[in-house]
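Students often ask what a 'structure token' actually looks like in practice. Rather than answer in the abstract, let us consider DUF4397 domain-containing protein, a protein of 278 residues. Its sequence is given first.
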Amino acid sequence: MTSRTPLLLGASAGACALALAVTAPATAAAADGDDKAMVSVFHGVPGLTVDVYANGDELLSDFEPGTVTDPQSLDAGTYEIQVFEAGKGPDGTPAVEKKIEVPAGADATVAAHLSADGTPQLTAFTNDVSEVDAGKSRLTVRHVAAAPAVDVRAGGQPVFEDLENPKQDTAVVDAGTVPADVVLAGTDTVAIGPADLNLEEGTSNIVYAWGSAEDKNLALATQTLSGMESAPDTVNAGGSGAAATPNSSDDWLAWAAVTGMVGLAGALLIRRTTSRRG
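Now compare that with the structural description of the same chain:
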């Protein structure tokens, strides 16, 4: 189920307990009457290898920062998600915990990450797995770092602006390659990048900006979902996630090249569908 690669280490985690309901449009599985949902988990708390439990059962062990799992089919329902420092659960005190309602047909990613002020928290994001036109791809950027608002630029031009933690922004773009970077909102101060990114046709690519600006370990990880081509009998398929690695250990502003993460297209500024959820 998982694809794991260690990334940067940094801040330690504290405790946080909240409740959240995940809502999403029905997928083909729900339309067929299956009481299932697709759920992935992203670990974006630096410096803490964890075990993840769902309703008291171990879901993931030795889960390293910067990793996003492949989607897993789960029964719809309520899940008590608990994140423990590796080896400390299930009887210890969780670093983060949250009750999540997963409806039938949902495709969601649960992200363990830092808030803007550095507090560990859990946020559930709905993944858009709707079709895209031929020659297109979908890009979603999620700000889950202990950092101020950012702009995401393609070819030096802002594409997503004033993105705050824990918000996301989405665009449907032409498949292709273009240099991209992340800057502090309203400035030219680079936070991550630049790097050439490439989005494959018919995919939905989710980029997580995570880590801590104060600890100088900002980085990115991606989740790629395939099967979004606009064609008869197309079925949305699960994807994979991989952690990004910095270009230089001396440069906390470095972008990470990631498996499954390949470029913004030139038409990124032409056709744009914006969705901000938190």
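One point worth highlighting: Residues 1-33, 234-238, 240-278 have pLDDT under 50 and may be disordered. Ask yourself how you might have guessed this from the sequence alone, and why that guess would often be unreliable.
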